[in-house]
Amino acid sequence: MPVVPRAEGSATVFVVLRRMRVPLITLITIFAISVLGLSLVPGQDANGQPARMSIFDAFYVMSYTATTIGFGEIPNAFTYAQRMWVTGAIYLTVIGWAYAIGALLALLQDRAFRQALALRHVSRKVSALREPFLLIAGYGQTGETLGRSFDTLGRRFTVVDIADARIDALELNTSHADVPGLVGDARDPHVLGVAGLGHPYCEGVLALTNDDEANLAVTMAAALLRPDLTVVTRTTSSVVAERMGTFGAPTVINPFDRFGDHLRLALRAPSSYQLTTWLESGPGAALPPRADAPAPGRWVVVGYGRFGRQFAADLRAEGLEVTTVDPNDDEATIVGDASDPEVIRRADLPAAVGLVAGTDNDTTNLSLIAEARRANPDLFIAARQNQPTNAALFTTMEPDALLVPTDVVAHDAYARLSTPLLWRFLRELPQQTDEWAGGVVDRLVDACGHHLEALWKLRLTDTEAPALQPWLAAGRLELGSLLRSPARRDERLAVVPLLVLRGEEALVGPGDDLVLAPGDQLLCAGRAGMRHALETTLLVDGIAEYLVTGRQVPTSWIWRRLSRPTPVPEPTAAP
């Protein structure tokens, strides 16, 4: 069912007419009385004979008088009675204009009028989009992080947020493309419609507000009005997540659950955790440090709310002993305030191997990190950062793992939406060995440096790789040959193939001896120059033969006509 927003132009006109109705009527009344009176006041012609001014002449005189142009007394010199009338009309007109201008200035400051103008402006920009885009509901830290990543990839998006300041900041950012931003409540389907929910080029909706009910409303509206769209939403409540799941098949991201999965991976395979974190962070992200996994032993989880309960369950699922601390939960191992030194001493940090500072108070969490470093310098410390403004403080404390819920949601959504191949690679990664993941990290550093370059997808189809089709059909093109430089085949391109998707089969970290087939999809990482060189191989005839056989083949149409074509060699039958 298409979403058709209301006519925003009509709303703007309605507000103007409603607020300016009395001033306009006042001006019209003053002008009409002035014209009528001037036509009735006795005058005289050039011969001194009594004469009255016509309605048209009176209208003409009052028009240039009201606009301060002042052509003079026409068609005849005015009598004193006419001059007195015109003088009074001038003062009345000035009063009328002052009243109208004041009302106009008040209208420009009117919230409803500004909202109507913004709706009309955004509606026009969204309607003009002619490329796929995403609709982001909620432009806090999560939305802003995702927006920067999508902008780097050249992906378009629109924004809805209830806070004026966030939309104003969006207007002042340095995005490569113009981003339509609308101030409004995302729970209103009309607001979503103006932001592009019903647009044919809308390819997905992201509900990223900090209000679970608002995210549920966005999920509901998208599922009912555009069931064909991909929906990604966030919540920390299992109850709300279950309610969201009843509307279509949205991707629900729980930052507490995702962080628990990541930390369990960090405990088992530090290199895999490092690779996952790096790839999810998006283009330009610095290589995160690789922390050593702690030895098996007891963990202390401070804060037994939603996050603490979920994380303690994850640790127990790994077969670890867990001591929980909370001031308000009788189910905690130690009931007490974590800011009390006596309570922390009862947790026996020197005998533990890990600490989770997971309260909803950043000051308490920072104090716990400092106390843990003092009591046991070898502790593996995971901390929860609640406020973005405290990022510098947590960075200075250098915890081994840091939960920033907004970043977790942003990175997870980026991995799912930037390219499906990246999400498929991350799903397959935990099944690989930690040594293998460490090797991939080293290859990425060699190809990209310590800051991740953009990942891209190659599809070996007729339209995207026409020059390779004869060799793919013959089964003669290996991955190692494809990754050679099209100018010098003895040089390998600094490209790291992460995944080859063949139908439903995913080949993770493929080797150079992999024989490529028509329709294969490749997930690659490398610098922009390497990507352009690889795309040249896909599109230019003759380069594939040079890479496979070493024979130089003319690439221009004239030289191909003048030279003898070389058929693609048939595959040799196995003995």
TrEMBL record:
Keyword annotations from UniProtKB, A to Z: Membrane, Transmembrane, Transmembrane helix
SUPFAM superfamilies per UniProt: NAD(P)-binding Rossmann-fold domains (SSF51735), Voltage-gated potassium channels (SSF81324)
Superkingdom: Bacteria
PANTHER family with a match to the protein in the record: POTASSIUM CHANNEL PROTEIN 2-RELATED-RELATED, POTASSIUM CHANNEL PROTEIN YUGO-RELATED
InterPro entries assigned: NAD(P)-bd_dom_sf (IPR036291), RCK_N (IPR003148), Trk_Ktr_HKT_K-transport (IPR050721)
Ranges that cross the membrane: 20-41, 53-72, 84-108
Domain spans labelled RCK N-terminal: 135-255, 300-402
Protein's UniProt name: TrkA family potassium uptake protein
